[in-house]
Amino acid sequence: MTSNAQAALYQNYQQRLLSYVSRRISTTADAEDIVQSIFIKIQQHPPHIDNQPKLEAWLLQVTKNTLIDYWRKQKNTVSLSEEHDFAEEEDHETEENPWLNLSCCLLAMMKDLPEKYRQAVELADLQEIKHKDIAVMMGISESGVKSRVKRGREKLHDLLVSCCTADCQCREKTPEQGCCHASTQNHAA
Fold this sequence. Notes:
Oligomer: single chain
Strand content: under 5%
CATH topology of the largest domain: Arc Repressor Mutant, subunit A
Largest sheet: none
Distance between the termini: 51 Å
Number of domains: 2
């Protein structure tokens, strides 16, 4: 890809990508940084695609992968305010909403799903990506995506029902201790 083609790609897609990323990222500065890193990746590894639909699908895939990288980094760098009493807030929240206890279970159990179901459920439910776009990303039909999402949800439901009963210990765990369901595969072994 020539530098003129890269400049044209930037002019044609920069604003669309910024809009797409901004809907998924809370701060404008981070969204702009992500779009900039997308175009750096394009410059470092230019696509060898001639037709427009394949180029757009490839660009969407690069964007989604860059967003996933961003979210992974954010997950590892959560800043805590020293002045805020999180222990008090945590107890108050779980008393008001018992479903908050299950959120750590769901995330831990997602790791135990077979890869094809885990990926489909993460993309559809956590990242709120349309089935049509997931189909392009995964290289399968849209109905295949819908089947994987449905089966993945069913497997998560089965894991929750079999593991998270009235004696679930998640409420008693602290963030440092982690979820009591760190890996249900380890419990089954």
